[in-house]
Hints:
It is a single chain. This protein is α/β, with parallel strands linked by helices. The chain has 2 domains: 3-74, Methionine synthase domain (Methyltransferase, Methionine Synthase (B12-binding Domains), Chain A, domain 1), CATH 1.10.1240; 87-211, Rossmann fold (3-Layer(aba) Sandwich), CATH 3.40.50. It has helices at residues 3-13, 16-24, 31-51, 57-74, 100-111, 125-135, 150-161, 174-178, 195-211; strands spanning 87-92, 115-118, 139-143, 168-172, 189-191. The protein has a 5-stranded parallel β-sheet with strand order 2-1-3-4-5, sandwiched between helices. The longest helix has 21 residues, at 31-51. It comes from Fictibacillus barbaricus. This is Cobalamin B12-binding domain-containing protein. Pfam families: B12-binding (PF02310), B12-binding_2 (PF02607).
Amino acid sequence: MSDAEKLARLFLDGNHAEALRFIKEQPNQNKMVLFRDLFTPAMYMIGDLWENNEISVADEHLATGVCDFVLSRLFQVSSEETRRKKKAMFLCLQGEQHYLGIKMINSIFEDEGWETKYFGASLPLEYALKSALQWKPEVIGLSVSIVYNLPVLKNYVRTLGALPNKPDILIGGRLAEKYDLEPYTNNQGIIIKNLEQAEKWLEEYREERVNA
Length: 212
């Protein structure tokens, strides 16, 4: 059994303490490594079990709650800088409840010195638009995991991409790896298939600002 499978089992067992201990005992405590090699594959395994009716909705919700607890305990946000220049907001489309992936992306942006707003699951477009108009983020991250939400994604990208400050729209979630999302981006969104691509995009963004 792989470490990711062991972690998935701890999540499904609802074992907060053991899951936290298991992560803390990993030899490499780098956040990206933990996200890439443990958290993400563990939650994908749980998602596959749910899709195949091998676990119940209650089981999936319990596992998600334990994973969220472990993430929050491990990676508590440090004291905020008094002033930050870059802002990003992250949210799941309305009807989307799978928020852990975008929570990890939000955490990576915070580590890079961004000021973030994390809205979690199922944020209606009208509220996302209102917040973006007031806050004017340079980046808006969207998560989509359900196929029937693809037309909804197109509407979010079109609306948020038309904001006066022209934010970069990043699109991720389980569907980003499984489907061609280009037809739903209105030539405005940037598809992020995994955590490595998110890190690469951040590096390129940082280099562009330095060169500018």
